[in-house]
Amino acid sequence: MLQRGHPASVSPPVKRRGRAPGCARARTFLPVAVEDLALARVAEHVVGLGDLLELLLSAGLLVLVRVVTQRLTAVGPLDLLVRRTAGQAQRLVEILDAKTREKLCFLDKVEPQATIAEIKNLFTKTHPQWYPARQSLRLDPKGKSLKDEDVLQKLPVGTTATLYFRDLGAQISWVTVFLTEYAGPLFIYLLFYFRVPFIYGHKYDFTSSRHTVVHLACICHSFHYIKRLLETLFVHRFSHGTMPLRNIFKNCTYYWGFAAWMAYYINHPLYTPPTYGAQQVKLALAIFVICQLGNFSIHMALRDLRPAGSKTRKIPYPTKNPFTWLFLLVSCPNYTYEVGSWIGFAIMTQCLPVALFSLVGFTQMTIWAKGKHRSYLKEFRDYPPLRMPIIPFLL
Ligand SMILES: NC(=O)c1ccc[n+]([C@@H]2O[C@H](COP(=O)([O-])OP(=O)(O)OC[C@H]3O[C@@H](n4cnc5c(N)ncnc54)[C@H](OP(=O)(O)O)[C@@H]3O)[C@@H](O)[C@H]2O)c1
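Above are the sequence and the NAP SMILES. Below is the predicted complex in structure-token form.
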């Protein structure tokens, strides 16, 4: 539209020639056009104003020129045009509270190409307490949050977009969350392993277990969490920068609590080794190691799907690494391997709290895997049909 408002002199000669009949039309219908024709038509005449004046002057119709000039000034089509085209180029955004429907903010002149992330930044200027990471903006008060990368002009909204705001609460970075969640179990387990005072009674302070499996279990547990910490720092490419602060309390209670409970029994002076002795431990260790390698391989494969700094999400496929072939059968093999590791650890230690931790972890990861599987099916039409969320052919 704006191009149509360019001065006629910059238009290519062919186009100018092409507008000549239009000028003739303008001479006949100009008064009508000013009053009745749609704004777009007026704009067309305005563009051809140079030609028109030439024509009118040459015809000696100075009176008519004055009338036309007066009309144009009175109606203000140029003004209107600019305003209208500006209206088409820029949007108005009102932000209402999703709970109370109270108007929180009105943003005018928002570029149609603006992303939700940019709108959040504008909103923060008027409400600094709600920094972008704690804002959820939706089209419907009870609907899903819009993504930061969603573009205003692609949303099903008119020139005035109404967005509903929800406060997600104080946020904390994912990396901090993971480091806190994973460093806790590592540290707590070691307190029990080294039998620091006030845990098992004075006479056991800083004593060591006589069972090999207890030492092996400590190595496996520590290895698992060190691996997770390193992966959080150097492997994962997260798409979300933050998560609600309150989640960290829930998550830490889960990880730290289970770590303490498991460690208490495994390192207890009265701990009894597994029923089938070394054979059971060896089998369990093999399961644990294979699953750790598998889990790491999947994390590397997921990392390779996403270029650094992007939020790209692709369908993961098996690579040359045989551990990734599980992608043929499940959507989240990293969870499958994670559960496998804990089953291995439970067999190795033959300890009830470990079995319970595996069960709770399995339940949680199944819920996430199902959600992720559903979103893969929704997002990718060509998603491999054979895959299940977490357990091949079953679940
Ligand atoms: N024991 C337990 O109770 C328990 C519970 C949960 C997790 N874990 C462990 O923690 C690990 C990480 O958990 P998670 O829930 O973050 O795993 P996840 O959802 O599979 O994500 C792992 C990483 O890969 C990225 N990613 C996932 N799918 C992708 C795709 N299609 N394209 C591009 N990137 C993709 C994720 O980015 P996004 O940020 O976009 O998701 C994230 O950075 C698990 O594999 C498991 O070993 C253990």
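The CA atoms of residues 94 and 106 lie 4 Å apart.
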